[in-house]
Amino acid sequence: MLHIKSFTVNPFQENTYLIHDDHGTAALIDPGCHTPAERKELEDYVLTNGLKIVALLNTHCHIDHVLGNAWAKKRFGIPLWIHAKEIPVLKSVEVYAPNYGFQGFESTEADHFLEEGQEFKVGTEKLKILFVPGHAPGHVVFYHEASGQCIAGDTLFRGSIGRTDLPGGDHEVLLEKIKSQLFTLPAETVIYPGHGPETKIGFEKMYNPFVGERAVH
Predict the structure, then answer these.
(1) What span, in angstroms and rounded, lies between the C-alpha atoms of 205 and 2?
(2) Bridge partner list, 140
(3) Between the CA atoms of 72, 193, 151 and 21, what dihedral angle is there, to the nearest 10 degrees?
(4) What sequence ranges are listed for the domain Metallo-beta-lactamase (predicted)?
(5) Are 201 and 186 in contact (CB under 8 A)?
(6) Which of 2, 65, 119, 198 is the most exposed place for a label (fewest CB within 10 A)?
(7) What are 110-165's pLDDT values in tens digits?
(8) H-type alpha helices, 2-120
(9) Cβ(15)–Cβ(191) under 8 Å?
(10) Angle 33-139-117 (CA atoms, 0-180°, nearest 5)?
């Protein structure tokens, strides 16, 4: 069984996810934790539940999703996995971080690269890597088919979609990829987004104002 714990952190109200199997093998996804208090909350959860984090994954590399990357890599001794197309996105964060007030941002580099269709194992659980660019050029989604759960980053939100006005964004590509990669999943699939509450594929397929069947185009 795949267990998912979310932490809402930083001024962007980003959702950081910690996932683990029944045996305590875990992966950390999009650690936006920036303050000592945010990081301690995550640490305490790991220690209390006896988890062993073995990997750090980024759905994409915008600042709000990577503020805790360097800290997590060192604190838990884990490698960072991203899609290769996110290399320049990750690299650019150290340049613009001060403009957002993050003067002490510590950059880090990826250790391994995720590929579309890849099967990524977290202990006994398997995640399928879906490639859903548009919000970011190398954006990936982690789909756990066995439980019908999907950690979707900033692709699909409850009643919305990821913004596409940032460098590397493409509105039409995002719409097409949501329809071809996400809306082809079972209707009961739960979407855990990068911001805001969870939702389900069936609901968004029908009612999402950008890509839903009842959307006004």
Answers:
(1) 24
(2) 131
(3) 70
(4) 13-195
(5) yes
(6) 119
(7) 999 999 999 999 999 999 999 999 999 999 999 999 999 999 999 999 999 999 99
(8) 36-48, 63-66, 69-76, 87-96
(9) no
(10) 120
Q: Using alpha carbons, select from 118, 112, 153, 158 the residue that is nearest to residue 132.
A: 153
Domains of the chain from N-terminus onward: 3-207 (3.60.15.10)
Say if residues 10 and 41 touch (Cβ distance below 8 Å).
no
Cβ-contact 6, 42 below 8 angstroms: no
Distance, in Å, from the CA atom of 151 to the CA atom of 156, rounded to the nearest integer, reads 10
As a whole number of Å, the end-to-end CA separation of the chain is: 40
The single residue listed with the structure tokens 């919305």 is 160
The tokens for 63 are 């600042």
Q: Are 102 and 9 in contact (CB under 8 A)?
A: no
